[in-house]
Here is the input.
Amino acid sequence: MLIRAQERPEVEGPEDDLVMRPLVRYEDNVGLSLTHVRLSGAHRPLWTPRSTRVYYVLEGSARFTLGAAEPVVAKAGDVVIVPRGELYSFEGEIAYLVLNAPAYIEGDDHYEEVE
Here is the structure.
């Protein structure tokens, strides 16, 4: 299977300050999903009960907060792993790939209210 990035449309997510291009989707039936994302700002706190997420930073840097742990700064070449069920958030100027296993499906993300 060959997937051409330019054939997968970009999707804007203004509520999370990002633009993403789903490269490998649930519909591709390979058991995982892969998305290229550009974030410029802050992503809302969220968690997913269904999949583990792996973030591979391509460019820039971002501050990730995972659960109750101290925040970490990830930069180009770093990998951040978010276990399923873990509340997390991040912010920065960053381009990354995010892999979901099993594949992301609509409704997987559960957002926490920020006070």
